[in-house]
Design goal:
The protein is 39% helix and 15% strand. By secondary structure, it is of the alpha+beta class.
């Protein structure tokens, strides 16, 4: 038996994801943000965070009620250079993108901007958001929490998360320095 590989273009995949998100109640604008983050992962070869997560993470979590398809982006506390956001368990990509946009705006005005979010959900590839900062001519950094999935040395119970941290900054090359 021979295996046949079928290639599907990125635009078709992205449109499929938008339609899927909309079909489970995600507003169209937010569905486009979520699909853009997922397709960005696929385009970069980060298959672990692309369309492969559409069903197993986002669709399933919305269907069982642990994630809301609509995102309430609430600014809980704000200063000139900082803000705390409550995402009310909405779409992590939407929360993260709006948070980075807010941080970039604060940095433009004051030289630094830091926005943290609580009650968010999985937000896809962390580098998506730091690239936003680099494209704005700034240094971007993002990280998030993670469920316990690793046992400590000599341990048998998972107690440590594999918390991602990403750093991106403009460079004198055609592309930014990017560590994800």
């Amino acid at each position: 038996m021979t295996e046949k590989t079928v290639w599907i273009d990125f635009n078709t995949l992205e449109n499929f994801m938008v339609d899927t998100f909309k079909g489970i109640g995600v507003p169209e604008g937010d569905a486009r943000i979520c699909a853009d983050v997922l397709i960005a992962a696929d385009k970069r070869g980060i298959d672990s965070h692309g369309i492969g997560r559409l069903k197993t993470i986002y669709y399933d979590r919305i269907k069982i009620g642990i994630q809301s398809p609509t995102t309430q982006f609430e600014v809980v506390k704000e200063g000139p250079t900082t803000a705390v956001i409550d995402g009310h368990n909405g779409m992590g990509q939407v929360i993260a993108k709006k948070s980075m946009q807010m941080a970039i705006q604060k940095a433009r005005e004051y030289g630094i901007g830091m926005v943290v979010a609580k009650n968010s959900t999985h937000y896809g590839i962390a580098g998506y958001y730091t690239l936003m900062a680099a494209e704005a001519g700034m240094i971007g950094m993002t990280g998030t929490n993670a469920r316990p999935s690793v046992a400590p040395t000599f341990g048998v119970e998972n107690m440590l998360g594999t918390n991602p941290i990403t750093f991106t900054m403009p460079s004198d090359e055609e592309f930014p320095f990017f560590l994800d």
